[in-house]
Design a protein that fits this description.
single chain, 14 helices, 21% strand, 2 domains, Aldehyde Dehydrogenase, Chain A, domain 1, 38% helix, alpha/beta, Aldehyde Dehydrogenase, Chain A, domain 2
Amino acid sequence: MTERIKITYATLRNDNEELHALYEAGVARARARLGAHHRNLVDGVARDGAGTFELRSPIDDRVLVGTFARGTAGDARDAISAARAAQPAWRAMPWRERLAILRRAAELISERQMEYAAVMAIEVGKNRLEALGEVEEAADLLRYYADIFERNDGYDHPMDNLGDPAVHTRSILRPFGVFAVISPFNFPMALAAGPTAGALAGGNTVVFKPASAGAMSGSLLAETLSDAGIPAGVFNLVMGPGSTVGEELQVNPGVDGIVFTGSFEVGFALFQRFSTRFPRPCIVEMGGKNPAIVTARADLEEAAEGIMRSAFGYGGQKCSANSRVYVERPVRDELVRLLAQKTEKITIGDPLERENWLGPLIDASAVQRHQRAVAEARRDGRVHVGGEHLTEGDLGHGFYVEPTVVEVPAAHRLFQDELFVPLTAVAAVDSLDEAIALANESPFGLTAGVYSEDPGEVERFLDRIEAGAVYVNRRAGATTGAWPGVQPFGGWKASGSTGKAGLSMYYPAQFLREQSHTVVD
């Protein structure tokens, strides 16, 4: 290959034969990894836990992804101690050398993109473009945060002088110490690599707990950082339950800051209890209930395509998924027709196969959540397309459902609760103003989109919508598809805790605290 193929979440085409040949080779390498045992990593040494847990593919429960050491609270304590012991030397390392390690890790991830993406597809059920995009994003997050740190000269800046040439003042950002990173199953590499890169670039050390359903991808990140030359103790991996490992990371006073991505219930509880003796940084991203608004002046074909991609990409298992649609009444029928038509054409099945766009949900509880929502829609409104649990043939060994478009009253629960399944609810409205008001009623504020060819309507939407990442007339995805250095991604209100977005120039500074130096000659 003369030039590496870059896949992002906005990639629309799937006809690059070279790409598919490379991916198929990656699938073969990924299959060779299946069934192996993976251990925790504490102070640079692999260790077992209290027994093991096994991970089976949501594509087919007959496929054993691997077995994993079940970490304990004691393992987490040892990892925190190792991270504390390693932090002074890591902080003292010249920041350019730290960044060089992160950039080496990024290059390794890119070199292994096909294999890592295939592992991810087997592990969590992503289709090939989604998995390839996430692996590419993980590498780009390492690169981008390293670049931001470098552009800011290591966050060491001279300040103004009041006129005395003997006085020299500077603002310097210093690391906090040890960060815990708790990542979700749905972006098991990118949402681990991003916080880890932000913490490590600034001289912090990390204790990382992946979601159990994404433990394999978490292990691959640890493998990559180790191969890139990360010193022992600087990055520690402890797999295991949230009730033990996760709990220890939340309550141990040796943790100086924490990053969590997951549900509002878990994230807000963590936010409320994490600071005890004094405030500690707590960066939590807690999901969304993301609206798309379609006005009577929209390109309806473009809107239907963008809604379909954002509502059903990765089975709606994204905090940015487009799960509610407000459409002006004059174009409601045509939009629903186009959306249903596009949804019916979605190919469902084993996502390792090129022709399948939609794979399985992550587990049986997600299927049950989908089926409960469909039943409510049938009772209280209408199911326009989809809704079935698919169990025929090999699909019966996985967690497959049909993507679903429903219509229910705008006050219905399906417009309020984050479901994390491929279901989007549609409601007709009488005006853009009504749509914006309904969109903003939600406690969440992560992403939002609008479709309108009227510049005045677009400006009203951009001025009044309460969300951290907003999109206008985006065919590639109404509410999804952010990329490092291109679209900052962070939530307002119940969707996030800091007001600073991931994937942006402001993110790495959250892992640092400011110190003012005034030195008199």
